[in-house]
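Researcher: We're teaching a course module on how sequence relates to structure. For the next exercise, students receive a sequence and then see the predicted structure as tokens, so they can try to spot secondary structure elements on their own. Here is the exercise chain.
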Amino acid sequence: MKKGLLLFSSLLILSACALALPSYSGLRGLNRTVDAKPIGAGEFSVALFSFLGLSDDTRSAMISGEAVDVTDTEYNGTWFITTAFGLGDKFEIAGRLSYVWNCLSRESVEGRQNLSGGENDNDDGFSEAGLYLKYGTNPGSGNLWVGLMPWANFSIYDGGNSPFVINANEYDGIWQPGQPMFEMRRPMIGTDLSAGIDLLLSYDLHPVVWHTNLGYHYFKQNFQFTDYRYGTGDTVAVDMDVEDPVFHLAMGLEYPMKGLTLFAEAEWRHFMKRDYEAGDEEDYDDMIIIQPGLRFPVYGCFAVDVVGGFSIDNFDPDWSDLGHHAYQAGMDPTNGYRANFAPFPEGYYPTWGVGVNLMYSSDLVEGPEHAVMSGTVTDSYSNEPIEAVVAFPGAAVGSATSDAETGFYSAEIPEGSVNVSVTSPGYVDGTATVQAVAGQDFSRNFALDPIKNVTGTITDIETGMGIAGKVTFDDGMPVSANASSSGAYGIYVPEGQWTLTASANGYLPVSVNIEVMYGEAKVVDFQLESVAVEEGQVLSFDNIYFDFNSATIKRESYGVLDEVVAILCANPNAQIQIAGHTDSDGDESYNQTLSENRAKAVYDYLVSNGVASGRLSTVGYGESQPVVPNNSSANKALNRRIEFVVLSNR
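Model: And here is the predicted structure for the students to work with:
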């Protein structure tokens, strides 16, 4: 986990903060996606957006009584002029003026008349004015921002003299000369009214930022025209309103780097009432555009976007002719039928397009006066993330709260020396002093120690003096606390039943079973018995028994050997020689071999019970080193022994 946190911190250092720049609405965001975070109190922005698109569309024309497929090319341009202002820390307001240009370039086909006197038909003008409001908040001061964006657009241009249909050379679908056809991806027809509300979500994953806009949009268009049934002279006056509720979803992903932000967006519009399907399993009620781009600052206060886009849809020109195809076929379509074939408000996205945006934001004028400090807060005992308040005493900046699920926090702090305080219930406060450099973001992680709820002392059982030992317990992995030279210790023990063990060099360990209740503080004292050994000391045991004429250790000797294990563990630096001795009964050579095998059997027992093999060596002396004469049964028993010689203890 520590390696993961290190990698995470490295990414934070390499990344930078996203620029607080406007979207197509004028509110802070990318292009098609609005950031839930407002621009900031008193800050403002202005921007000029441009997007040029190109689309090839196949249409049907009646030329000399024959149906001919022609491929026309649509060019369109969109320009937005926006401005926004921060109304406090949570509100932002923006205005937008839209200018559009359409051009239909007709394929030149023999017998096809170009009504406008050429192959290209153009129209342009200011189309809409809009007002946008955003409320954004940071619940819990984490890395998630949530917002609402109500908005409304009003038509300021009706597309010229578009409410007329004429026919020439039996080519259906051409409208008033000088005007593009309705059957364009984006016809020049103003929307009477559009409004909506979007839910905004922005999640800062550091360094990546994810934005989601989910909304309900409403559009209203009015169509007044005379439809002609060519070849008969029949006409019908059409006057109808078309209302379109639209489900809107936009998502954006941005990756800020030093001097550059990479981003990608996707926008989906689903027209909820356009459910007509002609039986060919094709419907035309959805449109999607994918738009990647990059953003970079210039001259400190300005920034530039360069974007590209391509659409995913099932556009068919026949679906934008207001039902003219049915009337021409001799039917009498209702307004409801015609509404299914009304041009979509704001039109389909172009097949592909490119855009360049120039933006100004007031908070970039002087350059950044702060740095972003971010990182994680974890439990030093479990390494798990915790929720904590990261405050900056003495600095004119608010505190941040780390996320309970990830431990992540982020805060903007002023440049210079800044004091940091990290607090969380149940933990010892963490403090630090950091040096912040304006515009240079950095990472700082904190690991808070749980408050010690078990305290006490470790003392020598004979002298009562304090011992600098340690107290341990096993919670899946050993956890320990060191005692001071006075013997005082403190340790955090989770709620539940545990076995605490006190140990120290030269002392036998002592274990105690305890139960810890939530919020309870306990005092547990330990008294240890000294078993320190010195170089040259010989520990002799005559009650380590073996089977007759064998090196197999009898079970009743295990307790003695376990005591030896404890002594050796209490003296972890001691090097020990295990020496085997016998009495004089039997052959001298046999006794020599027997003593060596018995020393090896003891060696194996000690190693199997946790004594490092590198600390042990063996030797057999047979009957050569009796401690008393072998002249009685009692003396012979004393000579049959195992000795432990302390070679060193450093």
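Model: If you want an answer key for the exercise: The longest strand covers residues 234-257. The domain at 538-649 is CATH 3.30.1330.60 (60s Ribosomal Protein L30; Chain: A;).
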